[in-house]
């Protein structure tokens, strides 16, 4: 690289860093920050680099992205979801592509351009949708499973598209059907050849590399495998990304999959950032301003059209309105692989600059509004369902006689199942509500009283008979839903015993304020159980142990907070710190009650004097030289408190 490019490159990276930080604060995908960087750095901005200059490096990002996608490609998972993947997924891609291509042909686009436009519009953003579904804890809900199935087929559909795109570049000649079949045949031969070689060669190669115990060698071998398979498919007249995908798929079932993914991620993320920067350089803002109304109209048509296709397909397959509408809004945006398709189409001269600019802008804006669409999709789906039948939920029937002995369990994970087994042994009636359809089906087949339903819905809780039950046990740890469920249950059943399981006690006070009878933080309870075993083995009477444990719970696990810090400390947690008062310390001679503890925002846990420790000394305690004060609080506050105690 010439030194003349160093300054623009550094400036471009600084813009990327600032843009990513800003977009993260706004809750927008980092992809949009890279696109903005490309716009600012490219011909429409400062013109530091051209798209052609970035293309060679950026293409490596696509290669590594496809390699990572291949690692995630699981044949067993695909087979388990085959009905929705190949049924709903293929229907969505084919119908959306066909409609979009027909509209493009109507507006005088060539056949090759129409195919590219249809394919680009049909794809949705796997990265954004999966991230948002995971944040909302919707991956296991029905609409989440439907959305993942469609996204999985879209990822598969990218492979034949990568084969077809070079064939569509016919330099103005008519597209011959035999060329398409020949290209698909070459792709099949390459696939079979790589599969055969990879089945025996790659595992042995990585076994030898793993024995060398060199992380550098492992990373280098991963990059070489991804790039060499890409070079092989490019030599056969196909895309490099196709070969990388095949290599990833071959290694996806091996024991090295997680290590490969971890090694490739830094290179992939960096090069994918450069790829999206190069996409941003394709944008010509003069064209954007000239055709802004067409871009907005096309954006509206894409989101509504894709949503309607998904909605109608799901309704035709028998899904309720709520699931169909929620999935439709989740998949309405244009995805990151659309950028790959558009970039390759521009390189093969299949699209002119005006059309590519409009489609890139549509993709950018649709991805920007995708978080809002996904987060509000469930609420809108409910309202649509309510308008049709005034029933917001597919509420199950609970054929269980409610009594004061009935225990209702919300959540049937490992903790919920353990509780249920002990209740069954003691012949205590119980009923379980869970949101995992596969788990509910398995449990019901095993004769368990487990039903599918959302614990956040008052109508379902009423059907459970919560007002007449003896106890409610909440075992899931979704912090967003816990407080809402506890508050709702307490309003419906003021006398109900409500036990809540949490991972820690960060929200203990809030949950107790919402109405929980008892909050059980499993991490702290695990510590107490270990303490009880230690004391019992030391000969302490069981009654005294139980009394101490109950006292600790009653005092909100007071002695399980505040620990002396080490080299590796979590600075978000409270810690203990011992402050020894030397001669001349500013607080020597003062009484504890005279010190501004509320202003210091730390707690005085104890004072040690002459080898004896006094817990919670009185406000009249007179501090002397040599006293050791045990302070508890956040590290910064403890540091300021120590400075005050010593220097004033």
Automatic annotation (TrEMBL):
Membrane topology of this protein: Multi-pass membrane protein
Keyword Membrane among record annotations: yes
Stretches assigned to the RCK C-terminal domain: 564-647
Membrane-crossing residue ranges in chain numbering: 6-23, 30-49, 55-73, 85-107, 113-134, 146-168, 180-202, 214-232, 268-285, 291-314, 326-348, 354-374
Keyword Transmembrane helix: yes
Residue ranges annotated for the RCK N-terminal domain, each copy included: 404-521
Superkingdom of the source species: Bacteria
Similarity comment text for this entry: Belongs to the monovalent cation:proton antiporter 2 (CPA2) transporter (TC 2.A.37) family.
Annotated PANTHER family: K(+) EFFLUX ANTIPORTER 3, CHLOROPLASTIC
Record-given protein name: Monovalent cation:proton antiporter-2 (CPA2) family protein
């Amino acid at each position: 690289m010439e030194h003349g490019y160093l300054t623009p490159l550094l400036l471009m990276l600084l813009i990327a860093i600032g843009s990513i930080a800003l977009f993260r604060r706004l809750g927008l995908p980092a992809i949009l920050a890279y696109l903005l960087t490309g716009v600012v750095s490219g011909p429409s901005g400062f013109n530091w680099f051209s798209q052609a200059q970035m293309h060679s490096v950026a293409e490596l990002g696509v290669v590594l992205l496809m390699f990572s996608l291949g690692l995630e490609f699981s044949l067993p998972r695909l087979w388990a979801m085959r009905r929705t993947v190949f049924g709903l997924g293929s229907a969505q891609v084919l119908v959306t592509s066909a409609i979009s291509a027909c509209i493009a042909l109507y507006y005088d686009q060539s056949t090759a351009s129409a195919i590219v436009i249809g394919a680009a519009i049909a794809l949705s953003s796997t990265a954004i949708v999966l991230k948002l579904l995971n944040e909302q804890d919707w991956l296991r809900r029905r609409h989440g499973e439907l959305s993942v199935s469609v996204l999985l087929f879209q990822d598969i559909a990218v492979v034949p598209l990568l084969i077809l795109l070079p064939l569509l570049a016919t330099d103005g000649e008519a597209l011959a059907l035999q060329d398409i079949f020949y290209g698909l045949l070459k792709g099949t031969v390459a696939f079979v050849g790589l599969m055969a070689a990879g089945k025996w060669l790659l595992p042995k190669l990585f076994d030898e590399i793993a024995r060398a115990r060199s992380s550098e060698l492992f990373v280098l071998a991963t990059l070489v495998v991804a790039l060499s398979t890409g070079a092989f498919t490019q030599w056969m007249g196909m895309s490099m990304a196709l070969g990388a995908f095949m290599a990833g798929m071959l290694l996806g079932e091996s024991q090295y999959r997680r290590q490969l993914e971890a090694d490739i991620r830094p290179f992939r993320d960096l090069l994918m950032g450069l790829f999206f920067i190069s996409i941003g350089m394709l944008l010509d803002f003069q064209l954007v301003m000239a055709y802004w109304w067409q871009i907005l109209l096309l954006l509206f048509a894409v989101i509504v059209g894709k949503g309607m296709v998904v909605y109608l397909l799901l309704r035709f397959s028998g899904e309720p309105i709520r699931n169909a509408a929620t999935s439709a809004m989740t998949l309405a945006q244009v995805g990151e692989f659309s950028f790959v398709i558009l970039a390759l189409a521009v390189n093969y001269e299949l699209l002119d600059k005006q059309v590519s600019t409009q489609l890139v802008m549509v993709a950018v804006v649709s991805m920007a509004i995708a978080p809002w669409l996904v987060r509000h999709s469930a609420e809108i789906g409910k309202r649509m369902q309510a308008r049709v039948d005034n029933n917001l939920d597919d509420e199950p029937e609970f054929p269980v006689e409610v009594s004061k002995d009935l225990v209702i369990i919300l959540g049937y994970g490992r903790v919920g199942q353990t509780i249920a087994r002990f209740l069954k042994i003691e012949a205590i009636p119980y009923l379980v509500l869970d949101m995992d359809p596969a788990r509910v089906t398995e449990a019901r087949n095993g004769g368990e009283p487990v039903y599918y339903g959302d614990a956040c819905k008052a109508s379902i809780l009423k059907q459970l008979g919560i007002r007449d039950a003896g106890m409610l046990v909440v075992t899931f740890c979704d912090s967003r839903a816990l407080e809402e469920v506890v508050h709702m249950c307490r309003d419906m059943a003021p006398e109900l015993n409500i036990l809540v399981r949490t991972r820690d006690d960060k929200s203990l006070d809030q949950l107790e304020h919402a109405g929980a009878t008892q909050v059980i933080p499993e991490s702290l309870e695990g510590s107490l159980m270990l303490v009880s075993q230690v004391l019992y083995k030391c000969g302490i009477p069981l009654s005294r142990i139980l009394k101490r444990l109950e006292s600790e719970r009653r005092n909100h696990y007071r002695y399980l907070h505040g620990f002396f810090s080490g080299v590796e400390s979590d600075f978000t947690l409270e810690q203990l710190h011992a402050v020894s008062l030397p001669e001349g310390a500013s607080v020597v001679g003062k009484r504890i009650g005279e010190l501004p503890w509320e202003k210091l925002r730390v707690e005085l846990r104890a004072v040690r004097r002459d080898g004896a420790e006094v817990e919670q000394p009185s406000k009249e305690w007179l501090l002397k030289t040599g006293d050791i004060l045990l302070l508890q609080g956040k590290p910064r506050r403890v540091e300021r408190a120590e400075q005050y105690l010593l220097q004033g």
